[in-house]
Amino acid sequence: MNKKGFIFDLDGVIVDTAKYHFLAWQRLAKSLDIDFTEEENEQLKGVSRVKSLEKILSWGNKTISQELFNELMGKKNEEYLSYIAEMDETEILPDVPRVLDSLIEKEQPISLGSASKNARVILERVDLKKHFDAIVDGNDVSKAKPDPEVFLIAAKLLNRKPEDCIVFEDSVAGVEAANVANMISIGIGSESVLGHAKYVFKDFTEISEEFINELIKN
Ligand code: G6P
Ligand code: MG
Question: What is the CA angle 190-194-197, rounded to 5?
Fold first, then answer.
């Protein structure tokens, strides 16, 4: 059978960790007297930890010392990790295991392509690590999405050409990164946000066996 490379983002694609990032960023913003809304949180999807804090500070018109910046980053991650520690398989988004199992059955190489430095811990918590042939996360890259670096490393590890890779992404920056990498981008979320993806599905329940077969064939 034809072999493609299937690359999955983590946060918002495999698990809904955006709510935990939000809680932790919100507490941090509050400590600095910055109002932080859910709409602003949307804009942090796919954005690295450092870039996220920079954005929050600029929205709140605050400048802080490098020392405080580092301290806040550490605190944010500690709080985030405390939420992750409680995660289990029930937090996997609908039909993600079905799609992963189908790809494994069809002997398709699978990689993670995430901006998160906590990706491995999360995959372990939800017991999905064994489904992946390769894992590329925030520890492996120097350039954040929309730079395609994370997906290009994944393609290399899967031994696939970029044009033979398919990327599942929920963020604007991630879809852009996949497009720049010359991969097939599949947006998971709303068409109004992810209209630049080649295909958009609300979630994995909409991804049929026929569609998976088409992706592998073409
Ligand atoms: C993902 C999330 C972002 C998060 C980033 C870094 O892309 O969508 O909200 O900021 O990962 O995550 P980390 O776990 O390293 O703080
Ligand atoms: Mg994401």
Answer: 125
